[in-house]
Task: structure prediction
Amino acid sequence: MVSSIKIETPLDEETISKLKIGNKVLLNGIVYTARDQAHKRLVDELEKAGKENRQPNLPFPLEGQVIYYVGPAPSRPGMVIGPAGPTTSGRMDTYTPILLEKGLKGTIGKGRRGKDTIEAMKKYKAVYFVAVGGAAVLISKRIKRIGTVAYEDLGPEAIYRLEVEDFPLIVANDVYGNDLFDEGMKKYRKVT
Amino acid sequence: MREITSEEVTQAVENLCISSNCTLNEDVWKALREKLKNEESLVGKEVLEEILENDRMAEEEKLPLCQDTGFTTIFVEMGQEIKVTGGDFYQAINKGVGNGYRKGYLRKSVVKDPLRRKNTGDNTPAWVHIDIVPGNKLKISVMPKGAGSENMSTVKMLSPTEGVQGVKKFVLDWVKERGANACPPLVVGVGIGGTFEGVAKLAKKALLRPIGSKNPEPFYAEMEEELLKGINNLGLGPQGLGGSSTALAVHIKTYPCHIASLPLAINLQCHAVRHATIIL
Result:
């Protein structure tokens, strides 16, 4: 059993600088959900605000925050949320660097990140956590509260504010540019 | 002619949508437990434990194993002595899908148009493959296919002279490149032969075969074993984070093809390998 590091959102640079790839983390506090369409809207607004030389009007402040790539299943009566496992992170790679530049400190999903996102995590000091893909029921039990933040028209793809308790995660990319997918594969590859 | 009512079809599809999404098949339980026993990486072991714990919870509470309850792919083998009465067969199937996804609290993940992307609200339409077979039975298999693994699938038209080595190399390179995003340990469905559109169907249908079953043709049984070993030697491991459990099985399905072509398709399937079948 590898022991877990408990951390709380919002994240500061000191906390995440201590995290290394392969570390097990139990995350507590608020995370915001967003996936494909919500990312597109966030980044469109950032770009528009940049062009118009004004402050962007975002549905939540990015500074120190964590985004979870998830589109939950419907909740049954009496449940906080339906099954809510991670979706594939790579689809968000087009949008992630600009969000990191604006202060986002962590992302949660499954699967590999692109080169530009890994570079941006190193540059702006942010981490990428992997949640176990397909562990949707187990993860949903760690979500204690849910509220809608924006883009309700997107249904499961809307932005929700989740209060999580001991959300089990693994650090897959740290602020030093390391990649657990590459390192893990190297370590366990057998040449035949 | 044996008569089956469209209501029977609707009810069967509704039940299959719920059971395939909420229950892990016995062969998959067995294969995952086996992987947990033999996994070399500590992180990999913990990932497998979390998956098994999740699947136990889902079964206990009758909840979907995964939030992505997929695009509903349905394979039908219809006996030629069957007559479906009381309505349109495709409508009966889609009604079953809509009912199942509503009553089972399954996520509705289908948009009406690929570019204008408005949700249909009930996960319809399903994609239905129908084969006419001898006899008077109706076999329906429901496979909810999540986008995570579906997006990591491909069709490649190889040159005939590339042969066995060409196929093996392409499959290994593909899994190495894309496998981590498809929720490993995977089942790798491989279609070889047929035509451009046919080979993709072969790869998908191969995923229905139980894990641990042998390919009836010794030539392909051996190829499956070699590919499985090769894939597990890649080191991707559970969720791609490193380890020895990258795939639970490789299933090959073939069909005759043109002298000038060698179609190849790879349909990756996640560790839940969801599907359920009924024979009416």
In short: Chain B has two domains: 2-20+65-145, 148-273. Chain B touches chain A through 52 residues (CB under 8 Å).
